[in-house]
Amino acid sequence: MKIILQPVAANLDYNALCLLAKDISQEFENIKVIIGTSIEPHEDIDFQSAFDRRRNQWDSFKLLEWFLGKFNHVRGTKILGILDIDAYSSDFDFVFGEAFYRGRVAAVYLSRLKQEFYGLKPNSSLFYGRMVKEAIHELGHAFGFVHCKDPRCVMHFSISLPDIDTKERSFCYSCRKAHFR
After folding, report:
1. Residue-wise pLDDT tens digits, 35-63
2. Rg of the chain over CA atoms, in angstroms?
């Protein structure tokens, strides 16, 4: 089993991705985490069809389906898409990330994790912490974790940045015990 961090037209530097891979591998012990080559899907019709012009946002479900199709041939691997976009889901006006529960694909959407999205001064440390938490959270769903009631657990459901900022970067004792026996 391995995890591929798959940047999509992301402006992340390689050092940030290496740190993210390291932080993820600390939570998912004995699972290799690698960084895929960035995908530039500007002319991919299936990718572009996920954009909703009326909302000026990307449809997360369609993007997950796109990832699934693009990486269908890769077995024994979880794919975490990293996209610097604003996305929504059918049940929510926006999402920080989404995953197919017990599936092979997950995604983190960076746009709303940044302070500058809200007209605030950039804070790279705060942004990176949010990205790590959301990445581990969405991969958790891909591995079968459900939402946790503990607000400090990385698997706690987040509907706002304060929710993310309250969480720690790791699974609580109960979640860890349930999944890493």
Report:
1. 998 888 877 888 999 999 999 999 999 99
2. 15
Q: Find the catalytic residue in 27, 98, 134, 138.
A: 138
Asked if 104 contacts 77 with a C-beta cutoff of 8 angstroms, the reply is yes
Which helix (H) or strand (E) segment holds residue 174: the answer is helix 173-179
Question: What tokens were used for 27?
Answer: 């939570």
Whether 79 and 71 have beta carbons less than 8 Å apart is answered as yes
Chain CA centroid to CA 27, Å = 14
Q: What is the dihedral of CA 108, 60, 31, 39, to 10 degrees?
A: -80
- Is the Cα dihedral 162, 165, 168, 171 positive or negative? positive
Instruction: Report how far residue 150's alpha carbon sits from residue 33's, in angstroms, rounded to the nearest whole number.
Output: 27
Question: Is residue 138 among the annotated active site residues?
Answer: yes
Sheet holding 87-89, edge to edge: 51-52, 57-59, 87-89, 92-95
26 Cβ partners below 8 Å, 6+ apart? 170
Structure confidence at residue 72 as a pLDDT band (50, 70, 90): confident
Kindly list the distances between the CA atom of residue 64 and the CA atoms of 19, 23, 34, in Å, as whole numbers in the listed order: 24, 23, 19
Amino acid identity of 145? F
Give, for 105, the enclosing helix (H) or strand (E): strand 105-109
Please state the rounded mean pLDDT for residues 163-178: 94
